[in-house]
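Lab notebook: predicted structure, single chain.

Context: the supervisor wants predicted structures on file for every construct in the current expression panel, including those that have not yet been purified. This is the next one on the list. No modifications to the sequence; it matches the entry in the shared construct table.
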Amino acid sequence: MPEAPRGFHFPPFVMEPEDLEEVALKIEKNIETGNEEIFRPVPTGFHTVDEQTGGGLHSGDLNIIGGVQNIGKTALVLQWAHEIAASGALAIIVCYEHSTTTLWERLLCQSSFLVSGGEHISTDSLRTAYIEAIRGRNTAASRVDGGGRHALDDILGSLPDGVKAWADLSGKMRNIWLATGDGLNTDLEAIGKYIDLAAGSYDRRRIVLFVDYVQRVPVIDASRALEAKERTERVLAGLKGLAMRKTAEGMVLAVVAVGASDDEGLRQGRVHLENLWGNAIMQYEPDIAIIGNRDGWGEDGTPIVRWGLEKNRRGVSNLEFRHKYHGPAYWFEPKGALVERENSWQPERDEIREAIR
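Prediction complete. Output recorded below exactly as produced.
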């Protein structure tokens, strides 16, 4: 852009305009320096997303995960983070519903399920092993000093394929950051600081930020109290802006936000994008929206979740896929079965759109 006059400044967080030559030179620089990562999406390992979006999550995009209560939204976040970490990118999970300990345990359950040929670790078996380890260390004098071993080594060694599961997760441990979201203090500025820390102090340039869930992110406005939908609108706009700003700076940053359903969607027992809180901006702001609903059980009794790709600026939308969900392992089978159009739940969205006009 032309040189700004002395004393002229843009407000904070406002990106300066670039002329066409500057944009072209930026692209050329990435090519000349071999920075191919800037042009590649981050794969999630979830075929429903990767195959329909040209490879996964794209830098600068805002992606929404929604659905009915207890459908496995957080499990899906952890599953994507698992794959993202394995690819060498950084997954940052800011969770307002679960502690970092709970998320760690669920990630370990996922790893156990992946490396095990049968029985795997569950959160119940983990808690039992914790208690047994405490009682054993308290009653066995020879283990007061732990014998040079960590207590966690003994615990994992007592669980099915626990050592293998931890070895799998350990290979990804530096690529997954967990943060407990505080509904009063962990606002957009705080979330942005996690990104700044990763990029500035650890030189991480390929990041997926997960926010679980978006309606819990506080918005601090000293002038007046904000309604829930207005807070959601500001948070979504802020997350989208964060992704686009960092992309403009040469990073790869995609944002995945988990959205909660409104009361009407919960009463109906089936949720669509239009049922998520802040529905107007929820429909227009995201680049990709994937919505989950219960869909019965498989022949082996495994629950089925129907994930609908209800918005997709990267390809075809209004598609639905049936995925088996292994609840105790917090794991969805990555490749789902496409639902034929005559059995799709997408047409009923037209009725919802008509009702909210």
